[in-house]
Specification:
With 419 residues, the protein is of the alpha/beta class. Helix content is 47%, strand content 13%. It is built from 17 helices and 13 strands. Bound molecules: uracil. The site of uracil has 9 residues, from helix 9.
Length: 419
């Protein structure tokens, strides 16, 4: 078998066998197949698609390309969630302590941000001392002790996906249903949970531009999960504007803390958290009624159980919990500028991707993997799409540590928020 024949087969719309797919995944992961050969095959898959059998084989080959986490010691109701991506996405930080407050085990490995989307792990590191580089033994100990741990990718989970995803990013092959479905499900299968809720986003700030495509993607991922013996439920979220108001690492952590204290709950964030969470509770066998589950989640916010679970997690992972009690302790950016509206009107658009890119420009995200993140910078919106605004009313606040970048961001945000 050789890679040239495999590329030619997919180019000519032939079905790839399991052996051919394994040969490619193994060969590309260990460096025997070059980037340009892999790029040619991925582009052929992008153009000619894959049938269900090819998709299963690609997914399982990628899932087994590295370590596979065994969480069976926590029983059969370990729940996980995955989102296909958003800007201002602090859902995991809010949602998972709520889920753990019901005694449902949460053992979650999350990612860092790259490009315009942020990552849960970067956001958690905005809490001084919070250690995300925890080894697997301690990770499991924490879950045994307090029922929750969120750490970075310390295991070598689905390394084939890491390589293929990075390559897809450079050859315009990200927005493709079989490639996204296999990428996400290979990681979820390797990450060990047996119950998974997938949040499939659609709209201007998402890979899937329409609900129809989002449903097609969800259906593929659900059948891959079923094949792997995992129970998978999809929920759908429009992604045109950022989630909540804050975009930027410590700004988002503060928003998440306030949410769990029941102090300030942006409607869209609340809707997403309750929707995903109510299905996680159902999958974990703790309640079949979705509306009742949402009420129970709100109760665990109001009675302080969810916030206490966040505190326990931060404490056990070395974080300074005094920051959770007093959010004023988070380091503030040097320049904090309120941007005012120059007219009366109604907000018609705030493109999530553009706002994510602007936060990244201020230093909240990375362009390259090695870039260092500035925790205190970002944007806090004061309005959502469809809100009315008056002249001289604040549209957003820019948090910057560089004066020139701050000036640029003030002008840019006025262009991004369309009135
Ligand atoms: N998220 C992933 O993990 N993979 C994709 O291909 C797209 C979104």
């Amino acid at each position: 078998m050789n890679i040239l024949d495999i590329i030619a087969n997919k180019r000519d719309k032939k079905e790839l066998s399991k052996e051919e797919i394994d040969f490619f995944v193994k060969g590309y992961t260990n460096g025997e197949i070059t980037d340009y050969q892999a790029a040619a095959l991925i582009m052929a898959i992008y153009i000619n698609g894959m049938n269900d059998e090819e998709l299963f084989n690609l997914t399982f080959s990628m899932a087994n390309s590295g370590e596979v986490l065994d969480l069976s010691e926590f029983g059969t109701n370990v729940v996980d969630k995955h989102s296909t991506g958003g800007v201002g996405d602090k859902v995991s930080i809010v949602l998972l302590p709520i889920i753990a407050s019901f005694g449902i085990p949460v053992a979650k490995m999350s990612g860092r941000g790259l490009g315009f989307t942020g990552g849960t792990i970067d956001k958690l590191e905005a809490i001084p001392g919070y250690n995300t580089a925890v080894d697997i033994e301690n990770f499991k100990n924490y879950v045994h002790k307090i029922g929750i741990s969120i750490i970075g990718q310390t295991m070598n989970l689905a390394p084939a996906d890491k390589k293929i995803y990075a390559l897809r990013d450079t050859i315009s092959c990200v927005d493709n249903i079989p490639l996204i479905a296999s990428s996400i499900m290979s990681k979820k299968i390797a990450a060990g949970a047996n119950k998974i809720v997938l949040e499939v986003t659609y709209g201007k700030g998402a890979f899937m531009k329409t609900l129809e495509d989002a449903k097609l993607l969800a259906q593929k991922m659900e059948s891959l999960g079923k094949y792997a013996g995992r129970e998978v439920k999809s929920v759908f979220t429009p992604m045109n504007e950022p989630i909540g108001f804050a975009v930027g690492n410590s700004l988002e952590i503060i928003e998440a803390i306030n949410f769990l204290k029941g102090k300030n709950m942006p409607e869209d964030l609340k809707r997403i958290v309750l929707e995903i969470g109510s299905h996680m509770i159902k999958l974990a066998g703790r309640g079949d009624n979705i509306e009742e589950n949402k009420q129970k989640m709100l109760e665990n916010i109001n009675n302080g159980l969810a916030f206490n679970k966040l505190k326990e997690m931060v404490q056990i992972q070395g974080g300074d919990i005094t920051y959770l009690d007093n959010i004023e302790k988070f380091e503030k950016a040097k320049y904090i500028i309120e941007v005012k509206s120059d007219k009366n009107g109604q907000i018609s658009e705030m493109n999530a991707e553009d706002i994510g890119k602007l936060a990244c420009f201020l230093g909240a995200g990375r362009i390259k993997k090695e870039d260092k993140i500035d925790m205190s910078v970002g944007i806090v919106l004061n309005k959502k799409v469809n809100d009315f605004v008056e002249q001289d009313e604040t549209l957003a606040t820019i948090y910057a540590n560089d004066e020139e970048k701050c000036k640029t961001a003030v002008e840019e945000i006025k262009n991004i928020i369309k009135i």
